[in-house]
Every structure is written in C-alpha cells, then in structure tokens.
Amino acid sequence: xxxxxxxxxxxxxxxxPAGLAAATLAAQRxxxxxxxxxxxxxxxxxxxxxxxxxxxxxxxLGSDYWHGADxxxxxxxxxxxxxxxxxxxxxxxxxxxxxxxxxxARVLPARHIILATGAIERPFPIPGWTLPGVMGxxxxxILLKTSGLVASGNVVLAxxxxxxxxxxxQYLRAGARIDVxxxxxxxxxxxxxxxxMGAFARSGYVAKGLKLLLEVRRKVKVIGNVTSLKxxxxxxxxxxxxxxxxxxxxxxxxxxxxxxxxxxPNINLANATGCAQNWDEAxxxxxxxxxxxxxxxxxxxxxxxxxxxxxxxxxxxxRGRLAALDALHRLGxxxxxxxxxxAAPHREALDKAQRGREFLDTLYSPAKDFRxxxxxxxxxxxxxxxxxxxxxxxxxxxxxxxxTKSFLRCGMxxxxxxxxxxxxxxxxxxxxxxxxxxxxxxxxxxxVKPITLAELASLPKAEDxxxxxxxx
Amino acid sequence: xxxxxxxxxxxxxxFTIDGRAAEALSGDSVxxxxxxxxxxxxxxxxxxxxxxxxxxxxxxxxxCLVTIDDVGNQQGCLVRVRPGMRVxxxxxxxxxxx
Lengths: 472, 98
Ligand code: FES
Fold this sequence. Notes:
The complex is a heterodimer of chains A (about 475) and B (about 100). Helix content of chain A is about 40%, strand content about 20%. Chain A has about 475 residues and is α/β, with parallel strands linked by helices. In chain A, the strands form six sheets. In chain A, strands 1, 2, 3, 4, 5, 6 and 20 form a seven-stranded mixed beta sheet that branches. A five-stranded parallel beta sheet of chain A has the order 8-16-10-11-12. In chain A, helix 6 links the parallel strand 10 and strand 11. In chain A, helix 11 (about 315-330) runs antiparallel to helix 12 (about 335-355). The longest helix of chain A is centred in the last third of the chain and has 19 residues, at about 335-355. The radius of gyration of chain A is 22 Å and the shape is globular. The two termini of chain A are about 25 Å apart. Chain B is mainly β and about 100 residues long. Chain B has one domain: 2Fe-2S iron-sulphur cluster binding domain, sarcosine oxidase, alpha subunit, N-terminal domain (Ubiquitin-like (UB roll), Roll), CATH 3.10.20.440. Chain B contains one helix and eight strands. The longest helix of chain B has 7 residues, at about 30-35. Chain B starts with a strand and ends in a 9-residue tail after the last strand. Mean pLDDT of chain B is about 90; it is low at about 95-98. Classes of the chains: A alpha/beta (about 475), B mainly beta (about 100). The site of FE2/S2 (inorganic) cluster (FES) has 13 residues of chain B, from loops.
C-alpha cells in the first residue's frame, strides 16, 4: 500500500455516487483526499462495473445506470487518490481508519472522514431463504452488471420495491426469461401512499417508472397481493409456495428465486464508530443521526448518501457534495458563508431528487408478515437462529437485540447482524408490543469485518495505536 | 442456474474449481465465476452442515466463503478471479474463526 500517503485531509469510504461526488469535489478544492472502496472498480452497487461491464448493449442496463460514468470521469481527473480493494474494518473517534488491502492491514489517519457506505438489501426472511438458488434481486443485478450472467430455467421474482421491477425490466431487455413475479406490495399501501401522489407526480420519476412497470407487466405474469412465501427444495430451491390474499397455498417450480424487499442503510461502520442513530418509522430501519450536511454525533465523521437514510442514487451524489463542502469548512478551507453559497445549487438539486420519496417509501413499505416472520423461519443466517428462538428468548426476559447475542449467538456470526439485525429488532418489538425505537439495535464493535491474524500482524503501528482502533 | 448472455464480452480466464479446470471472464468475482460454471453450493454451514451459495454478491452475507489458493474463508464475491487461481468449495466443517 505504498501508493497511499501517510495521512490525508479527507478520507471517503465507499465509491458509490455519494463517495465519488464527495471525493471529487474535495480534491478539486485542494484537500488531499483518498477514496477507499471494498470493490475493485468504482461505482458502488448502483453503478457497479460501470467502467467495465461485459454488457455492452447500453439499452439493457438503461440510461440511469450509465449516468455513473459521468461521476467516474471527473473523479479520475480530480487528483484524489483511489484505493480499490480496501476493506475498512474500523473508524475510530480519533479519526484513524483501520483497513486491509491485498492481505495486509494498516492504520490510516485523516482529518475528516466521510462514510459513504450506501445501502444493503433489507433482509427478507422466509422459510427456505437460505437454500442455494435463493438470492437477493440486488445480487442478481450485480451478476448481470459485472458478469453478464442471468438466471435461467424457472425464474421467480418475489417481493416489492423499485429494484425488483428494475431488475425484471433489465432481464427482459437482456432477453432473459422470468416465469412469474410474486408481488407482495400490501393492498392498503396504495391507499396510504395516495396523499403523497402529488409530490411524486412532480418528481419526474413518474413517467419513467410507469413505462417500466407497464413494459414488465406486458411481458411477465404478475401475481399481486401475495401474503406468504416459502422456498422448498432438497439441497437447493426447487419450488416456491405462495398464497394470494387468504387463498390456498399454490406451488410454482423454481430453479432460482430472487427476493427483494427494498433497501436499508448499511450502518455497521457508523454504529461501530459510535455515531448516534435513530429509528426511521417511514423507512422502517435504523439510520445514523445526521444534520443537513451529513455530520454525525462524532466530531469529524460525516455520512453521505443512502448510508444516512435511503434517498436514492441521484440524491446520494448531491449529499456527497454537501458533505464535502462541510468538510472543507470544518478544515478551515471555506468560511461558513462561502460553504453555504456554494452549497445552494446542490441543495436545490437534492430537494428535487428527493421529491416523491414519501410516495415510494409508503407504497413499497414491506408487509408486517414479511418483516416479522413465522416461527420456523431462520432469522440469523450465520448462526441458524429461528424466529421462534428469538420469541422464546423474549419470554425469558430478553428485551433487546444485544441480549439475544449472548442468549442465542444471534448477530455474533461473520455478517455481524447485517442480515439478522433488522428482523431481530422487529420480532422483539412485536413480541413486546413496543416500537423498534424502544428495542434498539446491536451495539457493534470494531472490527466490523473479520480480519485475519496475518493481517493484524502486518500492522506497522505500535500496539497502543492498534488498541485505540480496536477498542475505543 | 445462471447463464452468460451470448454477447457478453471480455477476456477468458482459466482457473480451477476443486481441482477441475474452469473458465471465467476477467471481470468476474470468484463467486460469479463459480455460478457461471454451474457450481451450486460454496460451503456447508458450521452449525448444521446446510449447503449455502452466494446470497448478496456484495460482501454482506458471508455465504460465499471459499478457499482461494489455500487460504480459507475468503469472501468469493469480493475477490476477482485470476488466471491459475485454485478455488476450493468449503463443504467440510472448516469454519470461519470467531
Ligand atoms: S455473496 Fe454475500 S458476502 Fe459474498
């Protein structure tokens, strides 16, 4: 890692739209800037592989995807350093970043840090979701973007949310076949979303979104009002069982089942850094608490993009620029008035990009039966803990997710609660009859990603400095 | 089951899966390369021995753990496939240290 400087004014973590835009602006304005990213190429998940996708026909992935190239170009010219393949496992309150790259670990100090860790798919726990052949719709989209791979055989999509429909549209464009889409959007969501229709209608997404929906519905059988889902198979998924409304259970053959239930902020790094967080009732997830610039409760640490609450890719780039301007101000490069003046166009663009968000949040809010799964469903994939075990623990007096860790090892596996935390919170809240806000979330500790002893041993730093990063 | 789009372009990479010769495209992650070669499971869980395959493809779920060039428990979706790479699925009881 000799290509990295010993320290930076600004370190940005995550090379999606927020991180790319933040690093570009900061470097253009003279900050020594590094962009650290776990992936091997820029773009984050939304613009994944935009510089090198094997899918050369531009109409398959769509023009919104190719916009990512407009962010990568200026970033490359900005003078910011770029460290792909870097896994960040710790950010301390003293602004030291613990990272691993090519099998070696190091500690990188910065004067300001912007976390742009983006979103993950909301866990969608149904019976059988751990079977091979069941994956996230987002995962299938990554396979399409990075490798030109599409599911074949009997393909079933199930769930709700814009990404599910976008993936279906991209599959059809690519010439792939989808047997059925099982739409789990609750009927009453339409009624609840209607008051937000006006703002959504003015958002500019409407025409595009409707066209996409109609195109998919013309070509694929869509079964609506799906109220239960189950994957079954011997060693891998072979069929999907579902119910429409209160109807009888139906069975479909499936070689691949792609699940989607919306996206939530990827909060692990912010949480382990000690950033305050709050429960977002509309988006039904925990989000780090930030101000209008993305600043967190930890001095010198900001969050930009979906990692601070889901706003979408376009909003993310504006949020990245706002966070970068605030970093310039905090580091003494811009006075307050200049920061505010320069931020004005980005704020206006952000407002425009976020218009209609309430409509989407309300319409695609997942049904309770899928957020609070039935007893036999595995909630924690790593430790294979079921919803029943969590409920039984509540009966024994467990009141929050941190206690389920010691009771059940739930959340102690390598994913560190990323795929069980949201469900465990919902199950406990439901069993106790309180809001998830009262239940809380896992208190996470660095390292937020497993690091090997060999990587640790490669740390060139003194032991007390390592200790500071690991147990602050 | 996944298949490559007929017009997917890219350089071919030769590597091995559990000792057998296999081919991938240069932009593939190890997890994508396994999927492209019809490998249905990457590992068995340490708790019950249940088979698992990549679920998230973005470094979140750890269901893609494989052994790469003799180093175990690598997240296959985060590592790019390289010529000559030796990938082994983890269907035994080797588990991630925790
Ligand atoms: S497939 Fe989820 S971590 Fe690799």
